[in-house]
Specification:
heterotrimer, A mainly alpha, B alpha/beta, C alpha/beta, A: mainly alpha, MetI-like fold, 10 helices, 0% strand, B: alpha/beta, Rossmann fold, 4-stranded antiparallel β-sheet, 11 strands, disordered C terminus
């Protein structure tokens, strides 16, 4: 290879030159996210497969009351006050807890996004009314509202879902409203207007697809909060009615014996902790990925 | 224009690379530049040329993922290897920077007065009261009307032009020997830009301060610098006395850039001269001259590694072109047919 | 001017594509009502490129958007080929405004990030309910028109495009519905010099090929000079000067135009500029100066300027200015100013 007049100054480094020492590109703690996603998959799978798993029914006595954990499938996590299998009750409890969390979260997401889209895009009177209602709901202490609702309505999974979605709708509405306002001011919306697009197209086809991902990224975190809320309500005896097990209900059942038989409380509490933690970690990752994206 | 003394700023073979998921971005890739005391140097290039990253390296304002090699001597001290404490002591008294967007560079919740006096109290060891008096003097110097009242204002209460004046006052507070102005007027209207440029000229000459004026606007740099350096894709392609570079550009890129910039001085042409194509991928730049893929005069010799090292010329006018424009042939008046290449830009 | 009047309009409306009369646009702000555009009249002739220049807050962008009814018009008429857009109802307007398209400053912001290039460029046809086959054909055609290979760029999303490519897509989208007039709002301001030249040339070529009329809004006087046939200078919501680019740039009659031109950095001028700097800042639009709005910064201003709003009047062939002292230099007026 002929070298052209090298001239003065620095010779250019060959393309494969390692160059200056660079800090390693930080990985996004991917193992933690993977672990969390794995745990969530396990919980969902357990909830779905609960009826066909080779476990004694959650209502049946399977061992000694308050029995210590032992090396059998039913006794892996010990037995509750009545001698029912803790593992079986955790697995079945996952159904109620996840159902309440996910369904009320989704309802709040759908209703809230719709209201937020209307308020943020149409502004004016619509915005004033929707914002007033959501702000009022947000200003209400959540526990007081839930207690009030629980005292009026008969406790059931249905009423629980209705009250919890009511609790979370304003959050989503505000989030969607702020996002809608940001996107509605973008010039592509003006361009579509100028090409003759009507309101439904502008809202549904131009703005909504951009608003949804960033709002949906908050779903896992909200579901986590709802699982905790269900637990608190059950702990107060206002949650999923007995004998259907729920994680919060199990803590409530075991609370009197916590000093002598801590696993009665510890097992459901640890399950809630891990699930909520996993949802938050996965949710944070989703938010980084979709939430703050402006383009 | 000034006799060679010890350079105020001496950048030698500087490389600033930034780690990304898809390999290092070679933002600055082997650039040397000197600025003498009291000298005004223009640093010109399009976005992605590395001009701002060069300034940030000097100021120690690099992102965490950046790595550097080479030397950056500021009054004889290598800022790349100096301790944080030593480097901090240089920022302010030795070198200060003015940013493009004063609205974002100023702290929105801190009063103007505090933002100006902070550095003075720390670096000059003077009392707060004395610093305030000096701040009033500085604001008067940069042409802020009613300076005493302005000290109590927050940045959002001022216009863009006023905010940029405040930024300059803050930069001048510790009486730096060198001021780096990174696109100081890009966000401003043309009549306000004019005021700020006049202001920079004035404070530079009255204080005998060195100035590095970074801009994408060739006309802006032309009228107010002694020397100019042109960057492209992380490399220095041409450097020399401002008049020489603009009147007789030697590098093909400089020549094309000048010709494609509309100007009030050039004859009015309906079709503009175009540089076809786009910047190379900064992670995998071409082996030889980085402008070769877009250059009409390029041939095999341009692709040889090392083809784009700077060659000495008359009066310190250096260029990095294998097939330079003949002296006197380029410049504003010259116009050749646009290169015949497909009209699409390629990206990454 | 900062002045008013219609002296510069063509008498025969049939010679215009667009004729704007006494346009007024107002914004409600917490500080009160701002007149962003105040009594502005101009016309756009078939096949020409009219430049609107001025600094931020002068109302040039608002004027461009109001013409397309993208801003609410407080009063005035916007006559497009005989029809007053300002008085047109929503339904007919949706069809009519398709003839008038717009290209925006920020090419990335003007493209919906969730659509592919192929969907984006035919959005106008989709809205009009055209069949898929026609849309596909149109997409290929307009992408080729703007110099983008339909095969390569069709499936891409806006985030995968460079600024110049995104602006080409925006231009293709406007072309797809065969407009008559395109308002270009700072179409090259966000682009690098070398890309800027590519887009300017493209607009120039497309204008000839498609028989377009352009309104070119820009703060960059050098670009306007090479792109436009006529130019209108605005300040604080009003017209200062209108005329052929050659005569306005060679012999600016309004002191503001002259100050603007003197503020452009020059390569060859001593000190980098050709004239003195303009003092002060633009006054707040909430409380604009009486009479001529430029008088607070004008080197020629006299008492008359505070009392009397200057009318647009001819100062040369096809060249108009709204200044009581249009064409007079500072030296000649200094004396009366001191009286």
């Amino acid at each position: 290879m002929t070298v052209v007049d090298p001239g003065v100054g620095s010779p250019l480094q060959p393309a494969d030159d390692p160059g200056p020492r660079l800090p390693a590109v930080r990985a996004h703690r991917s193992w933690l996210v993977a672990l969390s996603a794995g745990w969530l998959a396990l919980v969902v799978l357990a909830a779905v497969l609960a009826p066909v798993l080779p476990l004694t029914d959650y209502g049946q006595v399977a061992g000694p009351p308050r029995g210590k954990p032992e090396l059998s499938l039913d006794g892996l996590l010990g037995y509750d006050v009545l001698g029912r299998s803790m593992l079986s009750r955790i697995v079945s409890g996952a159904q109620a807890s996840l159902l309440v969390g996910v369904v009320s979260g989704l309802i709040a997401f759908v209703v809230g996004s719709f209201l937020g889209l209307l308020a943020g895009f149409l502004r004016g009177v619509v915005d004033t009314v929707i914002s007033f209602v959501t702000d009022t709901l947000l200003a209400f202490p959540p526990l007081v509202m839930l207690l009030a609702l629980a005292s009026v309505l008969r406790p059931s999974i249905g009423t629980l879902i209705v009250s919890l979605s009511l609790l979370m709708t304003p959050t989503f509405a505000r989030l969607a409203r702020a996002n809608t306002m940001r996107w509605a001011s973008r010039e592509f919306v003006m361009a579509a207007t100028n090409m003759g697009a009507g309101l439904p197209r502008l809202m549904g086809r131009e703005v909504l697809p951009n608003v949804l991902p960033s709002v949906a990224a908050y779903l896992p975190v909200v579901i986590a909060a709802l699982i905790v809320a269900e637990g608190s309500l059950s702990f107060l005896g206002l949650g999923v009615p007995a004998p259907t097990p729920s994680w919060g209900g199990m803590i409530n059942d075991g609370q009197d014996l916590i000093s002598r038989f801590p696993n009665l409380v510890f097992v459901p509490a640890a399950t809630i902790l891990l699930t909520v933690l996993a949802l938050n970690i996965v949710g944070d990752r989703l938010r980084v990925r979709f939430g703050e994206r402006t383009r | 224009m000034t006799a060679p003394t010890r350079p105020l700023l001496q950048v030698e073979d500087l490389r600033t690379w930034i780690a990304t998921d898809s390999g290092p971005v070679r933002a600055v890739d082997g650039v040397s530049l000197t600025v003498a005391a009291g000298e005004a140097v223009g640093l010109v290039g399009e976005s992605g040329s590395g001009k701002s990253m060069l300034a940030r390296t000097v100021m120690g304002l690099l992102p965490d993922r950046a790595g550097t090699s080479g030397t950056v001597l500021l009054d004889g001290v290598d800022v790349l290897t100096a301790s944080t404490r030593v480097r901090q002591s240089l920022l302010g008294p030795k070198v200060a920077m003015v940013f493009q967007d004063a609205g974002r560079a100023l702290n929105p919740v801190v009063r103007i007065g505090r933002q100006i006096t902070e550095g003075m109290v720390r670096h000059l060891g003077i009392s707060r009261a004395e610093a305030r008096e000096r701040a009033v003097g500085l604001l008067t110097e940069v042409g802020v009307p009613d300076p005493r009242r302005r000290l109590a204002n927050y940045p959002f209460q001022l216009s863009g032009g006023m905010r940029q004046r405040i930024m300059i006052a803050i930069a001048l507070a510790c009486e730096p020997d060198l001021l780096i102005a990174d696109e100081p007027t890009t966000a401003l209207d043309v009549t306000v830009q004019r005021q700020i440029l006049d202001l920079l000229d004035r404070v530079r000459t009255t204080r005998g301060m060195g100035l590095v004026l970074i801009s994408h606007d060739l006309g802006l740099v032309a009228g107010r610098t002694d020397r100019v350096a042109v960057m492209y894709s992380g490399r220095m392609v041409e450097e020399g006395p401002t008049d020489a570079v603009f009147d007789s550009p030697r590098h093909r890129y400089t020549e094309a850039l000048l010709a494609s910039t509309p100007s009030l001085d050039a004859p009015r042409a309906r079709r503009m001269r175009v540089i076809e194509g786009a910047l190379p991928d900064p992670r995998r730049p071409p082996a030889g001259c980085r402008f070769a893929p877009r250059c009409a005069a390029a041939d095999a010799a341009c692709e040889v590694p090392g083809a784009d090292s700077l060659r000495d010329g008359v009066l310190g006018h250096r260029h990095a072109c294998v097939h330079p424009v003949p002296p006197g042939a380029g410049g504003v008046a010259a116009d050749r047919d646009a290169a015949l290449m497909p009209a699409d830009e390629t990206r990454s | 001017m900062a002045g008013t009047g219609e002296a510069h309009l063509l008498t025969d409306a049939a010679d215009t594509v667009l004729s704007v009369h006494h346009l007024q646009v107002e914004y409600r702000t917490p500080g009160g009502v701002v007149q962003a555009v105040s009594d502005v009249s101009f016309d756009v002739r078939p096949g020409e490129t009219l430049g609107l220049v001025g600094e931020s807050g002068c109302g040039k962008s608002t004027t461009g958007k109001a013409v397309l009814r993208l801003e609410k018009i407080a009063s005035g008429r916007v006559v497009y080929r005989g029809e007053d857009l300002a008085a047109t109802k929503r339904g007919p307007l949706r069809r009519l405004r398709r003839k008038l398209q717009m290209i925006f400053q920020d090419p990335v912001s003007s493209l919906n990030p969730r659509r592919s290039v192929r969907e984006l460029v035919v959005e106008g046809l989709t809205i009009a309910g055209r069949p898929a086959a026609e849309r596909r054909e149109a997409a290929d055609r307009v992408l080729a028109d703007v110099g983008l290979d339909p095969e390569r760029f069709g499936p891409l999303y806006p985030r995968q495009l460079s600024g110049g490519q995104a602006q080409r897509v925006a231009i293709a989208r406007a072309l797809a519905i065969r407009p008559d007039l395109i308002v270009c709002d700072e179409p090259v301001s966000a682009l690098d010099v070398s890309v800027q030249a590519q887009i300017v040339n493209l607009l120039h070529d497309l204008k000839d090929e498609h028989d377009l009329t352009l309104v070119f809004i820009s703060h960059d006087l050098s670009v306007v000079r090479s792109v436009c046939d006529r130019v209108m200078v605005m300040y604080l919501g009003r017209i200062c000067e209108v005329g052929d680019v050659e005569s306005v740039f060679a012999a600016p009659a309004h002191p503001y135009t002259r100050a603007l031109l003197d503020s452009v950095p020059r390569r060859r001028a001593a000190g980098g500029f050709t004239g003195p700097a303009l003092e002060g800042d633009i006054p707040t639009p909430l409380d604009p100066p009486s009479g001529c709005r430029f008088r607070t910064r004008c080197p020629l201003a006299t008492d008359r300027c505070a009392e009397e709003v200057p009318e647009v009047r001819p100062v040369g062939d096809g060249h108009f200015a709204a200044c009581h002292y249009a064409g007079i230099t500072a030296d000649t007026v200094r004396v009366p100013a001191g009286v």
